[in-house]
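ugh ok fine here u go
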Amino acid sequence: MSDAVIIYQTVPNKPTVTLQPSWAQIYRGETVSLRCWIQGGDYRWWEYEWTPTNTNAPTSREYRIIAESNSREYRCRGRSGFLLTGWSEGFTLKVSSSKPRATLTAPRTTIPAGGSVALSCSVDGSDGWRFDWFRDGSDYSAAQPRGNNEAITVSQGGLYHCRGGRGGGPTVILQPSWAQIYRGETVTARCEIQGGGGTQWEYEWRPARLNIPPTSSEHRVTDSGEYSCRGRKDQFNFTQWSDVITVTVSSEPRPVLTVSPSWLSPGASVTLSCQVEHLSAGWRFYWYKAVPDRSKKSYSYELLPESNNRTEHDSYIIHGQTHTAGYVCRAGRGDPEYYTDYSDSEFVWSADLHPAASLTVSPDRVQHFRDDPVSLNCEGNSAEWRVTRITETGLLSYCSESYWGTMTGSSCNIKHLWTGNAVFWCESGSGEFSNAVNITGQISIKPTVILQPSWAQIFRGETVSLRCEIQGGDDREWEYEWTPTNTNAPTSREYRIITESNSREYRCMGRSGFLFTGWSEGFTLEVSSSKPRATLTAPRTTIPAGGSVALSCSVDGSDGWRFDWFRDGSAYSAAQPRGNNEAITVSQGGLYHCRGGRGGGRGGEPGFYTEVSRKVPIEETLSIKATVILQPSWAQIYRGETVTARCEIQGGGGIQWEYEWRPASAQVTMLEHEWLGRPFVLFHVMLKPYGKLRGTAQGITPPPIRKL
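structure:
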């Protein structure tokens, strides 16, 4: 056998180098830390690699550096088990070779009698400083500090100066270094002050509940929180606060085991992977074989002998597995050791028959209808058997302990198959697994989505219903499920919809007891955003004397309409309807228009209306006689003479008429019923009543006027 070769898988998690403390300017001789942060990698335990290297362990998340005069570029990457990130972008640490000088500022240099003066100290272009004050060459302990002592108030004369200092402050260190712990675990938070040797410190902690005298440099942490500390020499001299360390306490973790592959093939190895949520440092992994335990209706666990009790990595490879088997994992850490819960059992299946335990299916096929009788038979070196099923959703159950089957001796008679894929196998009383079989449950009943009413075109704002029809399911009581859902109960057969401008796809399925149909094919409800306009059609616009005209109303490209008719702006109740009132017969002149309505509204009225049609004028022909009379009644006149042509309408009394004359040169003003004739003119007359157009009277041709 060859030497083992480790193959790493590159993951997309991106590491980033950050500076701690995040000072804008670093000076030669200062100590800083670079921290490697892996985005999206908080749930794993990482080992870290740096370039260029230093004396820190290569697994350290922090790179502690004493700054030199030259600037350098640093990179990091992480490794977790067999997973490896790429290198981070380079972080250039720029270092100034010159030592900075503090600046003391006083608004005035004379203290008034009984008064005081405020002094301030600063270091240009940099931050994070804490200041010491001196008077006449000695420490000035009478200073009244503010903040990091950058300003004091003095009431004594003297020669004052100041200096700044930073770094060497306190740091909270966790032992073990687990920021994520679990209920029942304890870590120790220790306050370390760099460069504070030889000083008797008292310690302050945040949160304040930790400050129980005498104050200690260590605290045992069992609760979630943000922890920081500082040191105090006396009443006026104390360090800055440390950076905050966040500790999170969670409930007992339950690892997740994955098995690959799920189905065995000849010569293949099996890889087990055990993942702990919010994976932190220090975990060791334990690997178990699941052994059927019929007395407890579950499994007992036996450590895999090849695993040497535990492993440092979260994965484990099994060679030579040939039969169906179940596995479990858990993790532990610390001293005394803290253990997670056991993972759920995961299985690797083999289709090969095994002499000690085998499973056969009757009828012997992979696909079965849900209500078909199916029998699973266990055979082998045992008198006690149970049949186990796991669905494609990961639900594990046993025959006779749930609704789907009844166990009789060594046979399981299935009452209801799972719709979809499920794997079945036998487990013997002596702890053996049989071969596994994959069975697909299908349903023969198919739902269909139907539109009610079945209009060819739907418009925005209309209310329609979708109905779920289940073919061949009339003898069952169904509950229905729709997608997308609305405020209707999910058991409703109908999905009532007020249409919107966008088209959507709808599906339905049915459930009757433990019987499910599949989802129907998608039904796309196409909706037109524009409101339709009715169209009024008239074969002619003039009603003959004593006759009528048929008018029709329609909405192009759609159906199911009932129409309302209007004459001169009011509802036309004298219409003679046909069908849904789409056509009427009229015998009166007027200005007509129509509109369509459909759907169920209140009081039996339509719930949706079209725009009204354009208005169409209909003229009515009257049977009244018009006569032209000459005054004087000379049919022969001479040049220079004048006669008057008068239009008289028989039976037209009480009506105000407008008159038209022919030829057009004979037109006169409105209401004029006389015309002063000229020689050599032939003419006849047409009449209209005054006001709105009502009709046209019959015209006559008068005798010609001739010149002598």
